[in-house]
Design brief:
This is S-(Hydroxymethyl)mycothiol dehydrogenase. With 372 residues, the chain is α/β, with parallel strands linked by helices. Helices cover 26% and strands 25% of the residues. It folds into two domains: 12-36 and 44-172 and 339-371, Alpha-Beta Complex (Quinone Oxidoreductase, Chain A, domain 1), CATH 3.90.180; 178-315, Rossmann fold (3-Layer(aba) Sandwich), CATH 3.40.50. The relative contact order is 0.15.
């Protein structure tokens, strides 16, 4: 009786619907892709929901690379449907949030007990393809605008099933980056003052993080009154419209004339970084979580850097460790202390991703969430 007795003998590749972009600034397309059977250390997951993030738009516009075609999507909740050899952290049927920091456990950061800074994170080894065999580049090593996707098993973090997948899936990228910028990088403490410059999804998440950490004065800064209103809803105690008011003076006036203990730049431009630098108190912390572009340069008087004291920190993915932070934040959500539902502006289908990018550019949404 000739029966395949081992996993690697089978060919379980599957064809599913997914959203790709073929060339720089081309419109996205919904196409059929081929997802292979998981190899050693890999997992295939059924996508439940996936947020539409600015990073996906950067891939579309050519701002990250030119390894087209890209399989877009990465802020996802999923169910594990198959696992490869040697996978022990998840089993088939687990509800997971996907992440782009599958830590190696062996690099110098991991070896000194700081896996949140892992210098050798990894993705699935095999490639997903179009039906003609063209290899796809998955966004952030995930590619979750798809009915199924292939990831490294370490990119799966098991979470409770009794929560809205559309809300908690946003922890996979932008919301985690913002919350982590406040809690992990900025180390906001109870009773401290925090200012956040830029109230897009990441900035508003930083406000939520500051509130969760116990900050008592939280100042939101933006040029858009609608975004400032959303910031107030999430947890900002004060707002400054920097189109009308100098943000440095505005923040200082709201913090006793001294400046904030922590100022988070969620924009990532030289102008906003300088505002953050000068809007903090002596010995305060500046956190850069907005992503600059390669040509940007920063110039500051070295004496001011010395004289202001404190620290200047960059936040990579909110300096998060998914296995530690995702379950903790889901629990805070369940306890009513973290309003992830407020970040879900609309729920859409795979075919609506292009329209969601347009709404994003117009500043009309915090997150559009694709439901599969």
């Amino acid at each position: 009786m000739l029966v395949a007795a081992t996993h690697e003998w089978s060919d379980m590749s599957q064809k599913v619907q997914a959203v790709i972009v073929r060339a720089k600034d081309a419109p996205v397309e919904t196409v059929t892709i081929v997802v292979p059977d998981p190899g050693p250390g890999e997992a295939v997951v059924d996508i439940l929901t996936c947020g539409v993030c600015h990073t996906d738009l950067h891939y579309k516009l050519g701002g990250i690379g030119d390894e087209y075609p890209y399989l877009l999507g990465h802020e996802a909740t999923a169910v594990v449907s198959d696992i490869g050899e040697g996978v022990t952290n998840v089993v088939i049927g687990d509800r997971v949030i996907l992440n782009w920091r599958a830590v190696c456990g062996q690099c110098r950061a991991c070896a000194k007990g700081q896996p949140q800074y892992c210098f050798d994170t990894h993705n699935a080894t095999q490639k997903m393809t179009l039906e003609d065999g063209t290899e796809l580049s998955p966004a952030l090593g995930i590619g979750a605008f798809a009915e199924k996707t292939l990831v490294a098993a370490g990119q799966c973090t098991k979470v409770d099933e009794d929560v809205d997948p559309g809300a908690v899936g946003l922890l996979g990228c932008g919301i985690m980056a913002g919350i982590g910028a406040a809690i992990n990088t900025g180390e906001v403490k109870r009773g401290e003052s925090v200012a956040v410059i830029g109230c897009g999804g990441v900035g508003i998440a930083a406000i939520a993080g500051a509130k969760l950490a116990g900050a008592t004065t939280i100042v939101a800064v933006d040029i858009d009154d609608d975004k400032l209103a959303m910031a107030k809803d999430i947890g900002a105690t004060h707002t400054v419209n920097s189109k009308n008011t100098d943000p440095i003076q505005g923040i200082k006036e709201l913090t006793g004339g001294f400046g904030a203990d922590v100022v988070i730049d969620a924009v990532g431009r030289p102008e906003t970084y300088k505002q953050a630098f000068y809007a903090r108190d002596l010995a305060g912390r500046v956190v850069l979580v907005g992503v600059p572009t390669p040509e940007m340069k920063l110039e500051l008087p070295l004496l001011d850097i010395f004289g202001q004291g404190g620290s200047l920190k960059s936040s990579w993915y909110g300096d998060c460790l998914p296995s530690r932070d995702f379950p903790m934040l889901v629990e805070q959500y369940k306890l009513g202390r973290l309003d992830l539902d407020a970040f879900v502006t609309e729920r859409i289908k795979l075919g609506d991703v292009e329209a969601a990018f347009t709404k994003m550019g117009e500043g009309k949404v915090l997150r559009s969430v694709v439901e599969l």
